[in-house]
Amino acid sequence: MEKSVVEVEVKAVLPTSGGCAVFLGDALKVFVIYVDQAVGAAITMFMHHTPKPRPQTHDLFADVLTALGAHVERVVINDFNESVYYARLIIVAANELEQKKIVEIDARPSDSIALAIQQRAPIYIADHVWAQVEDMSDVLRKMEERGFQVGDDSPGGDTPLDEG
């Protein structure tokens, strides 16, 4: 049974008092997933192709995938329960005979989003989750009007958003 999904993209990463708010959505709707500061910084670095002096955890995971002949094909944010998002990381691996294997791994949405951005893989959200999320388009628009840029994680030391 094929489940319906909506493709979304990262619209912005903004600091909060406890980490970062990752705004995801499409032309019609935007929602927020709150992540810790380290993953928010990783997502921002991947969005801006910022070089790092040493590989970070997401780089290590991607290097291991590459060494095994695999890559992130897509990410699906597949559930939302008691204010917690859940995601599946879909990885495709090919062996030396070009035989492909698809592996689905339960993963934190924050890590999944970072890997998807890093590997230029699409991000999807399940329709039933999409229907539940609050539209934050106006909040994002107001933040942009105040001068915050996509992925800007240090605008003058301000903390523009608070979770909750």
Question: What is the compact description of this entry?
Answer:
The chain has 164 residues and is of the alpha+beta class.
Topology of this structure?
Layout: E1 5-16, E2 19-25, E3 30-35, H1 37-48, H2 57-67, E4 70-81, E5 84-94, E6 100-107, H3 109-119, E7 123-126, H4 127-132, H5 137-145
Parallel strand pairs: 4-7
Antiparallel strand pairs: 1-2, 1-7, 2-3, 4-5, 5-6
Q: What is the approximate shape?
A: globular
Give the termini distance in whole angstroms: 35 Å
Q: What percent of residues are in strands?
A: 35-45%
Radius of gyration: 16 Å
Number of helices: 5
Strand order in space, largest sheet = 3-2-1-7-4-5-6
- Mean pLDDT, rounded to whole units? 87
Could you give the order of the helices and strands?
Answer: EEEHHEEEHEHH
CATH homologous superfamily heading:
Bifunctional nuclease domain
Class computed from helices, strands and strand pairing? alpha+beta
Q: Judging by the overall fold, what is the CATH architecture?
A: Roll
Helix content: 25-40%
- Structural domain tally: 1
List keywords for this structure.
7 strands, globular, 37% strand, 164 residues, alpha+beta, Bifunctional nuclease domain
Describe the structure.
The chain has 164 residues and is α+β, with helices and mostly antiparallel strands. Helices cover 30% and strands 37% of the residues. The chain has a seven-stranded mixed β-sheet with strand order 3-2-1-7-4-5-6. Helix 1 (37-48) packs parallel to helix 3.
